[in-house]
Amino acid sequence: MNHWVIYIDNNSAKKNFIEDFQKGKIPNELIEYQNKKGLLYSPFTLEKLIDEEDKHDHKIISTEIQSLETMSSGEQKKALLHYLLKEKPNFIILDNPFDNLDISFQNELKTILKEYSSHISFIQIASRKADTLSFIQNFGRLTFDTFTEIQDSTFEKQTKKHSFSGLSIPQPLENLASVNNPLVQFKNVSISYGNKKILDNISWTINKGDFWQLTGANGSGKSTILSMITGDNPKAFGQEIFLFGKLKGSGETVWDIKKKIGYYSPAMTNKFKGRHTVENMLISGLTDSVGLYTIPTEVQKRVIKQWLLVLNLHDIKDTYFNKLSTGKQRLVMTARAMVKHPTLLILDEPTTGMDDNSAALLVTLVNKIAQETNTAILFVSHRKEPNLEPKSVYALEIAPSGSIGYITTP
Ligand SMILES: Nc1ncnc2c1ncn2[C@@H]1O[C@H](COP(=O)(O)OP(=O)(O)OP(=O)(O)O)[C@@H](O)[C@H]1O
């Protein structure tokens, strides 16, 4: 049985390639897959299934106990894999299969795929070379929209490097020194959904200037914790959660909280569908709006120019954001969350789906923010991110009475 890996970088037209492939527009080298039954293991498939379940009100993957939509991202990927394997396809396209998966499920997934590799052919699309499945013997690369077969070792030479200018991060426009410390405090917080216990007695404090990484296996409660900080989870009420010195739910508006927090998660990128230039995307970060509704002031423009110079993006300041590669979009979005110098910057799995070089660049930016500003950083990721320099790690560990949390060294 033949298996392929296709390496992509953040300039590859992955989505088009997959769509064409599914319609039978297949490169010659992969012609053996023509007219075969193929399925796609990808966030796109999950989105479609959630949508279908919602529209037709019937369960495809959801169970009596839990809907697909409310599962954590790792749980969704596990459920999808089992669903696809049951369909007995001839081949499965695995779109960055390890993204969002913790180490233990990554290993489990590798074992399952190896087991099935004798009768299902796999085409793995990978941003990171280290993710290559061990049983794969054919290699390809997608450069923009062109597929080429390669020798495994040529991959590294093809990647183009982007780097920063060496300039310092611009100073804040407003001084937020008056914000109360600690920024976030959880005191014995326990959360359940029905009978399902999620968090058990979490006590955790984030102070000004801290640099935390929040880790934990799939389903351990990382997103649940974030949603309690950023303001959208009703489960926070009645708990002892203090944000910027005030008990959550004691009169502060979501807007008050959001003003002090810079937040970025890759899912947010989809909100920016319109024609926003790179420069305007950054300017809108100063006011936290999706578009630009007022004419920016000269001071705002000046500070954003400095950011563009720091990021080495000044040459493409007038390019539309949605025309950028994924790697550059992530950089812009991370910087956008930071330009207002929030007291707390939350980055939720920011490197998901990025190639090695782009991920490394983003990590460099986060370390730079930590070194040169007073902003506290909360970097959420189950992947040990090479070269990230958090001062402490808060780890969640799943247990029958809900996840427990503990502080550990990076
Ligand atoms: N509305 C809900 N109803 C039932 N269970 C829920 C609901 N929302 C979340 N959960 C459960 O809470 C647990 C924690 O989910 P959460 O998304 O916080 O985990 P996570 O650590 O972010 O996981 P991942 O790394 O997979 O994204 C999961 O088991 C999830 O299924």
UniProtKB/TrEMBL annotation:
<comment type="similarity">
    <text>Belongs to the ABC transporter superfamily.</text>
</comment>
<dbReference type="GO" id="GO:0005524">
    <property type="term" value="F:ATP binding"/>
</dbReference>
<dbReference type="InterPro" id="IPR003439">
    <property type="entry name" value="ABC_transporter-like_ATP-bd"/>
</dbReference>
<feature type="domain" description="ABC transporter">
    <location>
        <begin position="184"/>
        <end position="410"/>
    </location>
</feature>
<dbReference type="InterPro" id="IPR050153">
    <property type="entry name" value="Metal_Ion_Import_ABC"/>
</dbReference>
<protein>
    <submittedName>
        <fullName>Molybdate transport system ATP-binding protein</fullName>
    </submittedName>
</protein>
<dbReference type="InterPro" id="IPR003593">
    <property type="entry name" value="AAA+_ATPase"/>
</dbReference>
<dbReference type="InterPro" id="IPR027417">
    <property type="entry name" value="P-loop_NTPase"/>
</dbReference>
<dbReference type="Pfam" id="PF00005">
    <property type="entry name" value="ABC_tran"/>
</dbReference>
<dbReference type="GO" id="GO:0016887">
    <property type="term" value="F:ATP hydrolysis activity"/>
</dbReference>
<keyword id="KW-0547">Nucleotide-binding</keyword>
<keyword id="KW-0813">Transport</keyword>
<keyword id="KW-0067">ATP-binding</keyword>
